[in-house]
Amino acid sequence: EGYFTYDPGFMSTASCESSITYIDGAKGVLLHRGYPIDELAEKRDYLDVCYLLLNGELPNDIEKRDFHRTVMRHTMVHEQMHDFFKGFRRDSHPMAIMVGVVGALSAFYHDSLDITNDRHREIAATRLISKMPTLAAMAYKYSIGQPFTYPRNDLSYGGNFLHMMFSNPCEKYYVSPTLARAMDKIFILHADHEQNASTSTVRLAGSSGANPFACIASGIAALWGPAHGGANEAVLNMLEEIGDVSNIDEYIARAKDKNDPFRLMGFGHRVYKNYDPRAKVMKETADEVLSELGITDDPLLNVARRLEQIALEDPYFVEKKLYPNVDFYSGIIFKALGIPTSMFTVLFAVGRTPGWIAHWKEMISGPYRIGRPRQLYSGEPTREVKE
Ligand code: CMC
After folding, report:
1. Nearest CA to ligand 1 atom 4
2. Top mutation candidate among 195, 201, 325 for ligand 1, by most atoms within 8 Å of CB
3. Closest-CA residue to 252 (of 317, 182, 162, 324)
4. What is the pLDDT of residues 253-266, one digit of tens each?
């Protein structure tokens, strides 16, 4: 049989052709459909970016109104989903719940499973973007034993999410426009990142013809690991463990020690060998949120700032081009907003949903084949089974 190249970890293999997102890792550039990420985060809202990723262009006023209306109209989930949640242990990790409930959407919405039908594909895409924040907030409410909060379609996408997280029947949460905007920005910064592990997983699952809900559930599962989306949770745990600026040197030494598996969470990236452009916006957003909330002297933030400063100057990190990545500052914002650490990766999943769908849609809209990597077999040669 023919030859194939061996490329563990896909260090040099392009798995597809795509016109959605461009990254220049050496220069620290990230473009969605040609638009720089920082400009999108500054000038547009999250649903505009979802529209852009899915359709290739930013929406005009009418398209924007229609898209926003459609997405916000489908925010509720089937009431039976409430019972489905109740099957989980009450101390389940919210990512475990998300893998389950998003996959289960395929059992609830039979009118969006036919991937050869344009209408089905459209409905599935909208439903996923509409319902992800609802499911995420439900996973949180379930974990703290509070009743689910229904969505409010008059709020912005980010504002509605905060409402569902923090309102309860006894107390309505005031959604500050600054915090709602910050939430929206965070979602924008996570919206897509070309062929990362979870997006490649979605494409691979989709290449078999699996339905969109099943594909996105597979993406959520792949995102969970600490080397990928799970890093934002790991960053906060690490900052808490470091605890004080005076302990940083010890952790830096551990990160550099070849015999110690410890890594500085929130640093390094397979593609970026320069400052992650999303981390820049995330840092500014962190400053906005902390100033809105009147948090001036946060110990974790002090540890984070000092850690970043040291890492940017230390020869080990400089030579290996290990810059802070998107996950480094997002955790600080989430913490300031009162979002528990276990929800951090869930928020990454909510933000990444349009990217996953855009890639799935792009793939199944063109000619594609089932993804089927080969291997180098290193096991036993043929041997006889003894009786
Ligand atoms: N702390 C200390 N050393 C590091 C780190 C780190 N965070 N990251 C990489 N290195 C070292 C690593 O030990 C290796 O050294 P050597 O060449 O001497 O063996 C070198 O840098 C290259 O690392 P690698 O693991 O071969 O690089 P990779 O491209 O396979 O991994 C990464 C990329 C993001 C998994 C890795 O940098 C990492 O584990 N970072 C910490 C976790 C993290 O922040 N993940 C979030 C990534 S961004 C968002 C996302 O994708 O979800």
Report:
1. 263
2. 325
3. 317
4. 999 999 999 999 99
In testing the pocket of ligand 1, which one of 320, 323, 350 has its CB within 8 Å of the most ligand atoms? 320
The closest of 123, 133, 223, 148 to 184, measured between CA atoms, is 133
Q: Is the ipTM of this complex over 0.90?
A: yes
Question: Atom 49 (ligand 1): residue with closest C-alpha?
Answer: 228
Q: How many Å apart are CA 291 and CA 112, to the nearest integer?
A: 43
90 with 143: CB under 8 angstroms? yes
**What ligand 1 atom has the least distance to the C-alpha of 228?**
52
CA gap 201, 10 in Å, rounded: 13
318-343 residues labelled b (16+ CB within 10 A) or e (exposed): eeeebbbbbbbbbbbbbbbbebbbbb
- Phi/psi class of residue 266: alpha, beta or left (left: φ > 0; alpha: ψ in -120 to 50)? left
For the entire predicted model, the pTM comes to: 0.92
268 lines ligand 1 (CB under 6 A): yes
Please give the average pLDDT of every successive group of 10 residues along the chain, which has 387 residues.
83 94 95 98 97 98 97 95 94 95 94 91 94 97 95 95 96 92 96 97 97 97 90 90 93 94 92 89 91 86 89 92 89 90 95 98 94 93 96
Q: Which residues are the active-site residues?
A: 269, 327
Strands (E), 204-317: none
First-to-last alpha carbon distance for the chain, in angstroms, is: 32
Q: Hey, what domains does the chain have and what are their CATH numbers?
A: 18-228+343-365 (1.10.580.10), 231-337 (1.10.230.10)
pLDDT digits (tens, 9 = 90+) for 97-131: 999 999 999 999 998 899 999 999 999 999 999 99
Q: Is 229 in the pocket of ligand 1 (CB under 6 A)?
A: yes
Q: Given the DSSP bridges, would you call strands 29-32 and 35-36 parallel, antiparallel or unpaired? A: antiparallel
Residue 326 is predicted with a pLDDT of: 87
Residue 354: name the closest of 216, 182, 185, 232 by CA.
216
